[in-house]
Recover the amino acids of this structure.
């Protein structure tokens, strides 16, 4: 597929996607995810992947959504919800139809429900007291699929809260802030150690803070979010679960169970909604190896890697799909030769080099590391489909290594992996020994870092200045941390259908737009190169007299000679053929896409018309430089208007 067009980059790199924020909000303290950044500022604008903040001194700064703390992201979701008619942004959307809510706390007969301890039922809710183990059985017939929404406050103590659920007819225990501060589903296959695939390390229920917890149970799927942020997403066979311990011996066979282990909790809301219709259908899940969830992504003449990270959501690097429209993307999983079409691009972040594809495939997602707990020295495995040259791809290749360091490259955080990867591994998963995805292979970061390392080495050693630097093999790889992936998936799961359609439409629009601009540019250069010696001589005379103002710029003699050779030899026409491949199909698809504005469609039509018009113009005999220049300047103006219109459409420029 065609490479990125430098003309577009030069014209549009200085502008950014903006969504107007109607009313200036009150100043608040903003904190980065890692705690290293704090500022008091007012929220001015919400953008697709960042926000604009106004600090007390009037200075405006742009901050990535991925870098902000969960509290700040939740604030932004609520802020956007307050100015939008779309469904609440803070709630994960699985496309389920829900029945009416059943209030489990309000209907509770505590005298009958208490199994152990001395819980209290107060107007504000159910209290599990501090200092004693408390067990309460919540009588309810659990639907096969349901959503349980709870509001919980840790009022005192730091011990655990366990919630007994039903999934697939099996009792499942969800531990919150359990042993040594971790939360997880336990036990899986009878072993606490194996259940690390669902483990979140770090306290989730902070003292004195009210938290909204939503548990969604589908067939072979359990998802848990706190305050709109996912921290547990399990896919698998519920027969693998079992509860162990005397605390579970006397609990009901159905319904829900609350077990407090000495801390005081207030449960002010516990609402059950049956899922009456779901896109997630029951199926038999066999034990799958990691490679069965690793994807080979074909994008025209190139390929890369990815993996199933949530139901029907494939994560990859953005640059893997950056030059291919959705219709040209194909995905293979594991050893299967079956090619799955990509339904849409639902997340696109070129700055972080992440993309998420909607691919409807019966493939088990890999477990993600939601707590960003990967540390230096941890052993990892890098999965991918590297290219080794000659059109050969090694499918499902695995390379072992260790996390060498946390590094920052070009303003973004990465995990340095002491393992060697090849092109084609881009977008593949990097797994810990707990079988959690801790990072996504980022070959672009690898290339930038290796160039920096080579530059540093040549600074200290003249030897490498004499050697071919391409032979220097540093034996390292870089991975985008899983925290960036989990944040991106939550953004996707909170999208409205309209937002998701816009992301995919803008992806295709930008690619088609770039190809059209490149074709117009080539035909424009062809007109300059083939205009005739008399036109070039007149242009030289006008320029030497200092009268070239307001006239089109001609090619330099060296450029002119190269372009003439390119068009006469057919090399330029080969590039034109590649850029034109399936272009009519893609333009027609965009014209029929409701997510594309009429202004953008008109601009595409203008660019499409300019290509053959310039080609005819390039082969005409021109009378003089003045009339030739006038026509060329008119083409430039039409191109500039089209550039502006499409840039606004894809969010690269304001109105």
């Amino acid at each position: 597929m065609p490479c990125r067009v430098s003309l577009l980059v030069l014209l549009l790199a200085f502008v950014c996607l903006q969504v107007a924020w109607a009313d200036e909000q009150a100043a608040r303290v903003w904190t980065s995810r890692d705690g290293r950044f704090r500022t008091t500022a007012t929220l001015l604008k919400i953008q697709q992947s960042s926000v604009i903040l106004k600090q007390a001194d009037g200075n405006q700064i742009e901050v990535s959504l991925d870098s902000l703390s969960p509290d700040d992201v939740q604030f932004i979701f609520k802020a956007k919800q307050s100015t939008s008619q779309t469904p609440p942004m803070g709630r994960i959307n699985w496309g389920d139809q829900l029945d009416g809510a059943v209030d489990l706390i309000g209907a509770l007969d505590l005298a009958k429900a208490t199994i152990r301890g001395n819980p209290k039922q107060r107007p504000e809710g159910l209290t599990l007291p501090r200092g004693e183990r408390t067990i309460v059985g919540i009588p309810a017939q659990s639907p096969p699929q349901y959503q349980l929404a709870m509001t919980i406050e840790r009022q005192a103590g730091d011990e655990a809260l366990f919630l007994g659920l039903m999934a697939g007819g099996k009792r499942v225990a969800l531990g919150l802030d359990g042993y040594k501060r971790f939360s997880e589903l336990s036990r899986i296959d009878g072993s606490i150690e194996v259940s690390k695939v669902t483990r979140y390390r770090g306290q989730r229920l902070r003292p004195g803070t009210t938290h909204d917890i939503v548990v969604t149970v589908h067939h072979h799927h359990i998802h848990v979010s706190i305050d709109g942020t996912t921290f547990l997403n399990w896919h698998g066979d519920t027969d693998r679960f079992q509860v162990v311990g005397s605390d579970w011996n006397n609990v009901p066979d159905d319904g829900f169970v609350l077990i407090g282990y000495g801390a005081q909790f207030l449960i002010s809301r516990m609402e059950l909604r049956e899922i009456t219709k779901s896109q997630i259908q029951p199926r038999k899940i066999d034990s799958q190896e990691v490679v069965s969830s690793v994807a080979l992504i074909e994008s025209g003449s190139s390929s890369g890697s990815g993996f199933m990270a949530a139901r029907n959501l494939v994560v990859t690097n953005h640059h893997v799909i950056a030059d291919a429209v959705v219709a040209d993307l194909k995905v293979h999983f594991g050893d299967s030769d079956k090619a799955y079409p990509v339904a849409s691009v639902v997340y696109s972040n070129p700055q972080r080099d992440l993309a998420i594809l909607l691919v409807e495939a019966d493939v088990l997602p890999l477990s993600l590391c939601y707590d960003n707990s990967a540390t230096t020295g941890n052993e990892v495995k890098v999965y991918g489909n590297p290219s080794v040259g000659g059109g050969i791809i090694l499918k499902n290749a695995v390379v072992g290594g260790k996390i060498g360091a946390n590094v920052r490259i070009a303003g973004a955080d990465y995990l340095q992996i002491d393992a060697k990867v090849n092109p084609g591994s881009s977008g593949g998963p990097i797994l810990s020994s707990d079988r959690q995805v801790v990072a996504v292979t980022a070959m672009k970061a690898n290339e930038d870092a290796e160039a920096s390392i080579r530059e540093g080495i040549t600074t200290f050693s003249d030897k490498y200045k004499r050697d071919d630097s391409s032979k220097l093999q540093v034996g390292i790889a870089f991975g985008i941390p899983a925290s960036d992936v989990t944040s991106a998936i939550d953004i996707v799961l909170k999208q409205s259908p309209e937002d998701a359609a816009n992301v995919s439409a803008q992806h295709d629009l930008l690619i088609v737009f770039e190809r059209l601009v490149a074709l117009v540019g080539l035909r424009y250069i062809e007109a300059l190169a083939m205009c005739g010696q008399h036109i070039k001589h007149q242009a030289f005379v006008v320029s030497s007299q200092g009268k070239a103002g307001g006239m089109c710029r001609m090619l330099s003699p060296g450029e002119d000679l190269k372009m003439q050779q390119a068009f006469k030899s057919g090399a330029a026409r080969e590039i034109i053929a590649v850029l034109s491949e399936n272009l009519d199909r893609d333009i027609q698809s965009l014209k029929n896409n409701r997510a594309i504005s009429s202004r953008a469609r008109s601009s595409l039509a203008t660019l499409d018309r300019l290509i053959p018009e310039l080609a005819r113009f390039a082969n005409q005999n021109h009378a003089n430089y003045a009339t030739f220049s006038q026509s060329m300047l008119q083409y430039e103006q039409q191109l500039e208007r089209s550039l502006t219109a499409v840039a606004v459409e894809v969010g690269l420029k304001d109105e």
Observations:
- The longest strand covers residues 264-277.
